[in-house]
Amino acid sequence: MYFIPNEGLVNEKALFYAKTSRYTLWLTEEGLVFDSTRRIKKETPESIRQNLKDINNPEYVKYDRDISRLVSIKANRSPEVIPVDVTEHKVNYFIGKDKSKWRSNIQTSRAVLYKEIYPNIDLKLYFWLDQFLGRAPLPIRQYICP
After folding, report:
1. Which DSSP category does 3 fall into?
2. Which end of the chain is more exposed for a tag (fewer CB within 10 A), N or C?
3. Partners of 34 in the β-ladder
4. E strands, the chain, where?
């Protein structure tokens, strides 16, 4: 799994995103957004089963979407968000005929770091065995609760 920086291809609030088989994870200044869509099995008439070109007709196919947001209470609302563990993998988007909107050689990373999400505390986000994880990188810089 890789984090992809937003270079104008998705909503401007997204700084990075990552796609898994089950959801898309959007990283914003305000926090994390989990966006999952799943196809709900719906009975289709026998004629549709025989004519596969109509199988995606909205009349016969239904999707369920779940969006969850994770926001840290009293966290820095404008943290610096940077890629960590940059990979050799590149992402290319050639959508549409307008070449000015095409993007190529977008660098990916294995992790993303929210710097100073709390005073003297960074948050590192990464995937492990297709599961999303977040933790404060060790060692945690000295932090004294008031």
Report:
1. B
2. C
3. 25, 68
4. 4-5, 16-19, 24-27, 32-40, 62-70, 80-93, 103-118, 121-128, 131-135
Q: Prior bond to 139 cis, omega within 30?
A: yes
Two tokens, residue 77: 């609302």
60-to-36, 57, 65 alpha-carbon distances in Å: 20, 6, 17
Tokens 């590192």 found at = 124
Residue environment code for 92-105, b if the CB has 16+ CB neighbours within 10 A, otherwise e: eeeeeeeeeeeeee
Report yes or no: 108 and 91 within 8 Å, Cβ to Cβ.
yes
Place of tokens 């710097």: 115
* Rg of the chain, C-alpha, whole Å: 20
Give the pLDDT confidence of 70-112 residue by residue, as tens digits: 888 888 988 999 999 999 999 998 888 998 888 899 999 999 9
